[in-house]
């Protein structure tokens, strides 16, 4: 019983992975203690692009509205300029993250949630304070030292850094959300393949009112192609708003073979003035720090009672904006499984599905975000100029030349920009995860999934087991729009059928399980007035979907079933296999 343990789950780390796991576990009614060695949460902005799937997780956990309040809104996120300086001529523009007219419909059709620019300190605050409100213990200034596991428990040794006291806690499970230098991943012997410190950057955070440069082309992310900062595979400097439009981070590549990077504040200010294109710019530098690009992932995420996630198991650059998004989704995949086992609803075998499902995602994310960096070479080459006194003038002349050569340059530039869709409008990369594991029962009758469009760029909504339930707007009894995603999740399995699926309703009633709810699309709370659900559900009205707490489809019966006994047998069997 849970009384034998000091707590059910200990989470090491309060970054996006640890904080999401802690919030979800507390929401599901599991006892959880999260520890971080620091006095507070992430002190610097770090990750910020929060994709729709991550916001869907926040929505399920009941904190989406609060996230929207803290975040820079979607419509200010993505009219990205590539310019010679903020004040100077532009080379190109890109509409990012589904803000462009060509992609916006796909994004809003695919999810009830917006993209958000939510900087990491605010994201962590949101997650951790809500977790604490829901009963999680949050131990700041607490260092994880080591753990031991046996058949029944994991014993974790912690050190209270305010007093120096070392103490142990017995828990059912340990979550290693301890970041890119994960000690826990090491200790449990996770094999990590790839490269570390493949490239390097300097970030300089500063305060300056730059609204005059972005008010007419709002974007929290912008690139500057300028000889002051040409080093590295991106070959451009970054100007990223962390609060529109007066708090910023400037970033530039460093030469890993060139000795220690230059972190001098005075020289950083000079560089920022060049990037902005205002030699008189009044800016206050807050900090200057280097960071390094990794390309590595773990082949397995768990060992016994210990589960790693986030940067502990996948390490990659910020390009494509997948860092904290992937960490949030690792946590959301893991949390309900831990909760189900801790509460006795499922056997320990369910926990093996975490690694099985998330390893392929981590691997893909590491490859994609590194590829996004390599893909800048086409852009650089398209507008490259020979060494000269004024490369910026030469570059503009080349791009604007009224000659056949000029036409070739422009054609190459537009081709290079197209490649960037795979970084900035990769809706499929963000939402098309498919899970294969013991917690998903594949259709016996349907073959391999056929992708109608480019799976990286376009979301393919499907109710195939292993996919996330598609979003469709339904209408509740008060006439308000609710998403199919709102009808499922929140820590429970959902048996989802239609008005003529009475047999499934009866079956769920017969099984009478505390962790299963029934949703009938078409009833007063879930009216399919638009007919959207009927169009995308891929099953007959009296068929059924069994949707997991994380919104993924565990199992479906496409054909109509009208006999309660048969439905009961099938449903009992499916739940038994999954859990
Ligand atoms: P994360 O590293 O956030 O958290 C680790 C946690 O473990 C911390 O709370 C730490 O205190 C704790 N911990 C570790 N060891 C411990 C111990 N022994 N005892 C107690 N606590 C311990 N990503 C992105 O997508 N876009 C971006 O622009 C950037 N930019 C960026 C800049 C900089 C400077 C950094 C360092 C990182 C980024 N990232 C990023 C990466 C992004 O921050 C990263 O993907 C997520 O923070 C990963 O979240 P995790 O929760 O896995 O680890």
From TrEMBL:
Q: Which GO terms describe its molecular function?
A: monooxygenase activity
Instruction: Please tell me whether the keyword RNA-binding is annotated for this protein.
Output: no
**Which keywords belong to this entry?**
FAD, Flavoprotein, Monooxygenase, Oxidoreductase
Looking at the record, the residues that make up the FAD-binding domain are 6-369
Organism's domain of life? Bacteria
Entry-linked SUPFAM superfamilies: FAD/NAD(P)-binding domain
Protein name stated in the entry: FAD-dependent monooxygenase
């Amino acid at each position: 019983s849970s009384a034998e343990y000091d707590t059910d789950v200990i989470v090491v780390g309060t970054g996006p992975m640890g904080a999401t796991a802690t919030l979800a576990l507390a929401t599901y009614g599991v006892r959880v203690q999260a520890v971080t060695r620091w006095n507070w949460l992430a002190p610097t902005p770090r990750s910020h692009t929060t994709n729709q799937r991550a916001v869907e997780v926040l929505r399920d956990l009941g904190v989406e509205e609060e996230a929207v309040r803290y975040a820079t809104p979607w419509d200010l996120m993505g009219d990205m300029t590539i310019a010679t300086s903020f004040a100077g001529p532009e080379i190109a523009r890109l509409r990012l993250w589904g803000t462009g007219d060509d992609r916006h419909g796909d994004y809003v059709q695919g999810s009830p949630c917006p993209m958000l620019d939510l900087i990491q300190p605010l994201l962590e605050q949101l997650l951790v304070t809500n977790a604490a409100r829901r009963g999680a213990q949050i131990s700041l200034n607490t260092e994880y030292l080591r753990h031991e596991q046996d058949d029944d428990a994991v014993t974790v040794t912690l050190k209270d850094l305010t007093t120096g006291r070392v103490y142990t806690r017995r828990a059912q499970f340990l979550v290693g959300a301890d970041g890119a230098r994960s000690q826990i991943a090491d200790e449990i012997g996770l094999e990590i393949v790839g490269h570390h410190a493949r490239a390097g950057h300097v970030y300089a955070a500063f305060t300056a009112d730059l609204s005059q440069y972005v008010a007419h082309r709002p974007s929290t992310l912008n690139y500057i192609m300028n000889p002051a900062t040409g080093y590295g595979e991106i070959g451009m400097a970054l100007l990223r708003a962390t609060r529109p439009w007066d708090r910023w981070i400037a970033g530039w590549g460093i030469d890993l073979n060139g000795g220690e990077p230059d972190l001098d504040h005075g020289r950083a200010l000079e560089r920022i003035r060049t990037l902005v294109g205002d030699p008189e710019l009044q800016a206050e530098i807050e900090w200057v720090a280097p960071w390094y690009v990794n390309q590595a992932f773990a082949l397995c995420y768990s060992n016994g009672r210990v589960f790693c996630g986030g940067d502990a198991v996948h390490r990659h650059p910020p390009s494509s904006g997948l860092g904290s998004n992937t960490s949030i989704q690792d946590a959301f995949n893991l949390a309900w499984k831990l909760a189900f086992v801790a509460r006795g609803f499922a056997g320990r075998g369910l926990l093996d599905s975490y690694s099985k499902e998330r390893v392929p995602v981590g691997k893909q994310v590491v490859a994609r975000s590194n590829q996004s960096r390599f893909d800048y070479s086409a852009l650089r080459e398209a507008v490259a100029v020979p060494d000269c006194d004024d490369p910026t003038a030469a570059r503009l002349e080349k791009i604007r030349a009224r000659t056949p050569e000029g036409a070739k340059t422009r054609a190459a530039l537009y081709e290079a920009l197209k490649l960037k869709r795979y970084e900035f409008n990769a809706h499929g990369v963000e939402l098309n995860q498919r899970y294969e594991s013991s917690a998903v029962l594949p259709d016996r009758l349907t073959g391999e999934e056929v992708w109608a469009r480019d799976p990286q760029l376009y979301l393919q909504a499907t109710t195939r087991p292993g996919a996330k339930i598609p979003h469709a707007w339904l209408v509740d009894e008060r006439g308000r729009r609710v998403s199919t995603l709102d009808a499922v999740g929140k820590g429970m399995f959902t048996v989802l059928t239609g008005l003529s699926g009475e047999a499934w309703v009866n079956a769920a009633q017969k099984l009478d399980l505390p962790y299963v709810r029934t949703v009938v699309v078409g009833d007063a709370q879930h009216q399919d007035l638009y007919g959207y659900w009927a169009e995308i559900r891929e099953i007959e009205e009296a068929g059924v979907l069994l949707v997991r707490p994380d919104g993924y489809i565990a199992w479906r019966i496409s054909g109509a079933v009208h006999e309660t006994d048969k439905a009961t047998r099938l449903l009992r069997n499916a739940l038994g296999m999954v859990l």
